[in-house]
Amino acid sequence: MSELDPLSPAVFAILFSLAGGERHGYAMMKDARTPEGGGVIMGPGTLYGTLDRLMRDGLVAEAGHSDDQRRRYYRLTDTGRAALNAQLMRMAATLSAARNRGLMPAEDHR
Amino acid sequence: MSFAVQVDRLIQRVYDWALRFYPHQFRSNYQAQMLQCLRDAMADPQLSQRTLLSILIFDLSRSLVKENLAMLRDAFARPALIYNALVLAALSTVLALGFYAVPQTLLRQSLNDPQIELTGNLASEIQNGASPQALIPSHPVDMNTSLSPFVIAYDEHGHVLASSGQLDGVTPPLPAGVFDYVRQHGEERVTWQPRHGVRIASVVRHISGGGFVLAGRNMREGEARIDHIFTAAQLMLLAMLSIIVGATLVYGWMTRTVRPVAA
User: Could you tell me which residues come within 8 angstroms of residue B157 by beta carbon, excluding any fewer than 6 positions away?
Assistant: First the structure.
């Protein structure tokens, strides 16, 4: 996966969660479920399958410390951060276009 | 022990069992973490047991398929493996085509052999002044049922002068285009189909003094042999392709790369 490719909802939710700091599996699942985290409901299979591919592509890495073998922490790499930023820029552009077309209320600058 | 705790334990046990269906490598990398994830989810007061169950069922049904497909892709979707299999499949197809085409051609050509001799002799005798009616046997051959050769003599305009071949009691007409071709080229070897299901291996020769002679015979027996060869070629191709697919799967599985846990 290139850092410029659009991200799937699950990938975005994981990267967005890790942008807030190192997380273990369930913490990522919980973040992803919240509306601001992407509103993505995923189970352990989807989470670790996606994490596996993200680690292979170099977007995520193990943090190097863990509570124990069962609860490992993960972190965002520089490539992962760049991919997340690229996605956020795309989303911002879409949001701006939606406002211009009157699909959303204008931004409140108070 | 409360009912809720018992249900939690049951869910954990069933989930642990279901994890066996993930690919071995994936399981050995993540099984412990996935189970811990489940325990964390069970301990989360914001997540009801019912919601968790529906998440788990949906997740298992999707990710089991996805991870197993990914494992198969890793094992078999390798350019060298696919290239070798395709080359072998192409060679097998060529071999099977050859196995069919060579004997088919030889058999079809051999069906003309007696007719070539018959038309040659007949044309030469008519050219030397013999009457077609005197040369052609009066006993008719049924083109549909008999495998014996028959002969027909025509004048220069394609009208029948004498014939030993009959279909439903009459000598069927030969397509006019055949006479035009033979007038120009001297001879034609053609599969003549006077009626659906009746196929005749025929040789037509032009007589230099004017007129044509045709010798033919029913191709039924020869075509049955050709059909057998076709069936054998199909079976041979199927067997070779099965061996190639089987060997590719076994080799792909034996040489698949085992991915370590990415760090």
Answer: none
CB atoms closer than 10 angstroms to residue B110:
11
Mean pLDDT (whole number) for B28-42: 93
Domain A9-99: give its CATH code: 1.10.10.10
> In chain A, what are the helix, strand and coil shares in percent, each to the nearest 5?
55, 15, 30
Q: What is the token pair recorded at B219?
A: 């191709």
DSSP letter (8 states) at residue B170: B
Is the pTM value of this prediction over 0.80? Answer: no
Q: Which tens digits make up the pLDDT trace of B43-90?
A: 999 988 889 999 999 999 999 999 999 888 888 888 889 999 999 999
Euclidean distance between CA atoms B172 and B169, whole angstroms: 9
Residue B197, both tokens: 């299901």
Distances (CA, A) of B223 to B56, B200, B230, B233, B238: 62, 11, 10, 15, 22
DSSP string for A29-70: HHHHHSGGGT-----HHHHHHHHHHHHHTTSEEEEEEEEETT
Q: How many Å apart are CA B199 and CA B127, to the nearest integer?
A: 29
Convert the pLDDT of each residue in A21-34 to its tens digit: 999 999 999 999 99
Nearest-CA residue of chain A relative to B46? Answer: A30
Q: Report the residue from B55, B56, B67 with minimal CB separation from A49.
A: B67
Reference B215, options B134, B123, B145, B133; nearest CA is B123
This complex has an ipTM of 0.87
Q: Express each pLDDT in A37-63 by its tens digit.
A: 989 999 999 999 999 999 999 999 998
**Cα–Cα distance, B181 to A101 (Å, whole number):** 76
SS3 of B76-91: HCCHHHHHHHHHHHHH
- Name the interface residues of B facing A (CB cutoff 8 Å): 22, 26, 29-30, 32-38, 40-41, 44, 55-56, 58-60, 62-64, 66-67, 70, 259, 261-263
